[in-house]
Target: Acetyltransferase (GNAT) domain-containing protein
Amino acid sequence: MKESLCRVVPFNKEIDRTVFSCGIEELDRYIKKQVSQDIKRNLTKCHMAVNSDNDLIGYYTLSAFSVPLRSLPEDRAKKYPYPLLPAVLLGRLAVDQSMQGKGLGGFLLQDGLLRILTLDIGVFAVFVEAKDETAKRFYGKYGFESIPQNDLHLFLPMDTVKSCLI
Model:
């Protein structure tokens, strides 16, 4: 994915979302009908990938999150003295079908991770809830690990993010 093919901007209700289709109805419906309400309620921030014609070609959301220590793999959990750890949830990541397989998903993931790195708050890890095995494999390519209770719930420790992106 060449960065010049698109730019990532904060959610803008002026960008047409009606024709966006990633092939997963839940993600399509979210960007078309729900995201603006979640933003108004300050539940999430949405970042949109748009092409040179200002068409929506992808998006992702970021939210505050906390993870119970007991849900982590034992080797990770023993390092922390608190019952809950601060995290960021990358709640949704979707790419329009016209751009799938061209690297935009990885580009959006990296953009999100860089945004998280610039936060001036303590964050243990980034969490995602993969929709299916295909999504799990996608995140696995970037180093995300499954949690023991649900192998579609994955996390990437911030130490790993820092070492990969800085």
Summary: The two ends are 20 Å apart (CA to CA). Residues 88 and 135 are 18 Å apart (CA to CA). DSSP finds five helices and seven strands in the chain. Strands lie at 6-10, 45-51, 56-68, 84-95, 125-129, 145-147, 150-157.
